[in-house]
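Colleagues,

Please find the record for the two-part complex below.
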Amino acid sequence: MQIKESSELYDVIIVGSGAGGGMATKQLADAGLNVAVVEAGPFFDPADPITQTQLKWPYESPRRGAGTDRAFGEWDMSWGDWEVDGEPYTQEEGTNFRWWRARMLGGRTNHWGRISLRFGPKDFKGKTRDGHGDDWPIGYDDVKPYYDKLDKLVGVFGTNEGRENDPDGFFLPPPKPRLHELFYIDGAKKSNIPVIPGRLSMLTKKINKDRGVCFYCGQCSRSCSVYADFSAGSCLIFPAQKSGGKVKIFVNSMVREVTTNDEGKATGVSYISKDDRKEYKLRGKVVILAASACSSARILLNSKSKSHPNGLGNSSDLVGKYLHDSTGASAAGVIPGLMNRDVSYNEDGTGGMHVYSPWWGDNSKLNFPRGYHIEVWGGMGQPNYGFGWDPNGMNKYFGLKSGGYGDSLRDDVKKYYGSVIGFGGRGEGIARKDNYCEIDPTTVDQFGIPVLKFNYKWSDFEINQAKHMQDTFEELIHNMGGIPLNEKPGKDKDYGLHAPGEIIHEVGTTRMGDDPTTSVTNKFNQLHDVDNVFIVDAGVFVSQADKNCTWTIMALSWRASDYIIEQLKAQNI
Amino acid sequence: MDRRKSLQTLILGGAAATTGVVFNSCKTETIDEAVAESSAKYFGRTPKELERLEKLNTEQLFNEHEMETIGALSVVILPPKEPHGGPIEAEVPALVEFMGKDIPTMAPTLLGGLMWLDHKSNTEFGTEFKSATLEQKKQICDQICWHDMEIPLDKQALEIQFFYMMRGLTVTGYYTSKVGIADLGYKGNQPNVWDGVPQDVLDKHGVAYDPEWIAKCIDQSTRGTIATWDDDGNLLT
């Protein structure tokens, strides 16, 4: 069979439609370029009532919201989770990396937590700061203008606090704290842990005429039908189309490789259509990979040719290396002061936290080099499958019997409803060359494309940090007069440190740098080896920071897009 | 106010200000009909998920007698109460049937537990569980409704595991139903404007808002005004 090649020559082909791909689509289409977006999953629009899960009730489903088909519950708006049918990945023996993939237009931005934190000045200069990892080739001042523009384009609530490493921005006003968050603020104060309003990309106020304002259902993970939260489709790709941009979207199209000519320059991509399982080629002057850090690395490594025998952009042998995820550990406590709530009002609020704690510690006095922030959850949320399962299980913390049956179970459920506060610590792990993904030549996916094999282990730094998280959580629960649920995980369990990948902030596989022998892209996200290929996902991160990665992915994607426009104008690429 | 209607109001509130593409597809009738039509069948499922659901729906896990026994046990676990009914009104038996197929590892415990109930009831009272008196049913449940907290559940007798699972399904089934949510009093899952915890609730729990903090929060009367900032990031509107 002959591979079908498109006759059209696109200015730019963008692989992936999430945060990085969406932003590049918006900027490049707005600049008048002819853009092809290639997405491995189907079309998705949060406003489509057929696929909408926002505002569904548990009883609209026979499984009442259980997570049988979707790992984060059946209302979660991610098509694909730790597993994607027919698309396996493998592990080096003795390691465990968990890889979340969303196969849909907008990718993981449709369900993410919308926690939108800028990196601070220190975050770009890790090695200078403490000798670990490497410095970025750019600093905060290079990215700040893009963070500023991003705040205004996408919208993020928060407050200017004048904190050195948690920079101010252009924020929408935050929502008021919920009841459990007031308890958290008081509890944190007792330990001198700072608490500030959350910073999340949800519109508490209008930012333009096309997007709605938050109506406080607390369901951003279901993707907002009035576009009041950020997702790449609703806020970047659709607006780019609407304003007349030339954007052609290829859905259900699984990119196999970047094609190159005899000179080694990229000529486009080849992809397999999931609809007819045939291979096609698209031609483009510039190829931008935004398939997610690991998927883009996979495409590069699979793009072997005479000019690029080691895979595309891989002369440094670093594609796939320095893979790192945020660290994460969790705890929860039952707070007697929050028991027997008046269920008299709606406290759904925005999705996620109205308050959080940015990193406060002095790492020079600690046995781990980098910090973490604390995310807070709780409140009287929507009951779904699992709610009330062990209706009086928490009796054991109060010297009462658990179990039984009868009318008293109703009282038990109401007694404990809204009484639990939970914490997620999200921190920075050190990027290491020996944590990586590579091609597993023994295994292919259902499209015949060789898959990734992961090899990732935490070091003592991350484990020590998790212990610090657990100690902090215990103290916070105590400060709130609460009782920790479950036993505190000890050394034998790495202090509850989540497996790498589980925080879904994987970055670093195509890191940027000035030296082509120690990095994959330059400081404008451009492959050192091939000047018409760019990476605009989190692959280019030199280090992750104790922030979440999406805001920086988008700022860097915008910056790279400006550079691409400039270079095309100058006919340099 | 009807949830769907109030959502429409919000959407139209946005549409009133614009003729944008975003809201063109959200004309009142279209969205309401589409939501009404699709939600019963799809509740946002993908075609593949829907296919699996329909396959599960063609299968039958429990026979009629077992379904009646599930119903009989569920109302002992959580007796109905005015005005919000109980497990039958909450369709708990249908949930148990579905979950037993959706998560097949649950099926042996449920099937085996139901057999155990009848065996026990026949042995002690000469009648099947569902036909036993409430007093007799309680006597049986009393023997299996407590479990040793020190021992993992899966190391305990099947009938103990069964009761724990049935209590979980009954209570979760009730509180995820329309009647159960009404009993709980949950007020969310509908468009609204969050403006903080009511004063009487703050007072009851002995907490207060910090005026400095609140001053930074959204003034909800300005939520519809387009945001503009000065060069230093101070909101002007």
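The mean pLDDT of chain A is 97.

Comments are welcome before we finalize the supplementary table.
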